[in-house]
Batch of 2 targets.
Target 1
Amino acid sequence: MPEKRTYADRAEYLTKAVAKRRRKLKAMVVEYKGGKCILCGYKRCVWAFDLHHVDGANKEFGLSTRGLTRSWEKIKAEADKCVLACANCHREIHAGIVQLPGGIQVEKRG
Ligand SMILES: [Zn+2]
Ligand SMILES: [Zn+2]
């Protein structure tokens, strides 16, 4: 009987641990990318940020779910190909309403 309970507790612990890790990684990525939206300068809420791939490939780097279960090194390598934009600006980029600042190059930090 205690075994089932232990398993449930452990499952809950793991779920929380993963959520905590994701929160931390998201904050790390945002900070790594300069901490603010490249277009409007927004910097209030970490969860409002997306990473937009500069090379125009359709590939998006999902920061909300699966993307954050990768290792930090992989996340960083991916982040180097992206610019940080808030959710609003990111939608506008894809809608063609705004352009990324002229001649933007993905800067490599660190
Ligand atoms: Zn923005
Ligand atoms: Zn995008």
Note: The first helix runs from residue 2 to 32.
Target 2
Amino acid sequence: MFIKKIFLKSFRNYSGLEQDFSPGINLIVGQNAQGKTNLLESLYILSMGKSFRTVRDTELIKWNSKGYVVKGIVIKKEDELEIKLKYLKNDRKRVWINNVEKKHLRDFVGKINVVVFSPQDLSIVKGEPSKRRSFIDKELIQVNPLYSFYTSQYNKVILQRNNLLRSLSKNSKDIGLLEVLNKQLAKYGTQILLKRQDIVRKLSILARLIQRKITGGKEDLEINYISTIGDVTDKAQRVIYNIFLDKLQKMKEKEIERGITLVGPHRDDLTFLINGIDTKVYGSQGQQRTTALSLKLAELEFIKSEVGDYPILLLDDVFSELDRDRQRFLLKTIKHVQTFITVTDGMHADIQPDRVFRVEKGVVKECFGIGEIGKNTKDQNQETWS
Ligand SMILES: Nc1ncnc2c1ncn2[C@@H]1O[C@H](COP(=O)(O)OP(=O)(O)OP(=O)(O)O)[C@@H](O)[C@H]1O
Ligand SMILES: [Mg+2]
């Protein structure tokens, strides 16, 4: 799949943009703070319905504007799709596919698939458990529309349950309601656990192969899902459900005392082991970076295996951070993937892009080849668009 063309209106620092792209490598060059990441952000929104940088849609609206529009023409398995998202202040986000408005954002998310790799992704390896949970959740939402239903139901139960736990510490009358909520939590939680375990198993196999290739066979990467309810590896749905309920029963006193739900997928984690050793704790900077790269490339292969087509790859500021060998490995791997690579001026050494664009103050100009990056020979922007 690839994005053939994008239209932006009042999005971040873009007043209006109409730009077509190559199905191969698109290099986006420019100085700092010109709008390179903003452009990638708009492409990501076409896939996920929200930004990878913020949860607040108002931040995406160009200052002093009423709202923003992002529209893309996408080629997916030879079909042409028009995907559009519009957000006006004080209104809900509205989405269209081929001019038909969709009632729910979840009917829009994942129509095209995108993998983004930015310096912040190192926090998947190094950061807090929430980063790792959100990483797998984002993958699952893209390939499994039901997943966001399970997570939103689960989160609703958590809220209700936490309120109840707090009130139980003062008055233990509602213990019957707790049992009801436990069953609901275990029901949705089990679905989440099954899906997460499955994706982690697949990503682990793919990432291991990639890490071996990058390191010439020296590093054996293993990704494990660590659940707070206990060992649920390879267990059947019914068994996981019962383990979950047992654990909630065991934790009852402690949870009432603390007033929060202490176990379940909202508290689970992943580990990345290199040759059996935890990369988060003991890995070198280089090993952590390689792990993040392997993970992202595993994501590409995972989405390909699930939806039958490679996703679009957005590399924001990471290319120049990699050493030569890793850069070469990456370029070899993405031969059949539409890729957008942002680089600041002068950092595009080994890339052989199909098209090159220069971004300056929210205006995109195409350049014909690396040698002409500074010449701004073709201006495809339109200041007004509706
Ligand atoms: N809602 C908005 N309206 C107008 N301008 C905005 C908005 N949000 C961000 N900007 C501007 O966009 C610019 C940042 O753009 P972006 O993050 O894409 O930069 P970049 O080219 O990726 O830079 P770097 O190389 O530093 O990563 C900043 O100048 C910021 O002030
Ligand atoms: Mg940037």
Note: Residues 374-386 have pLDDT under 50 and may be disordered.
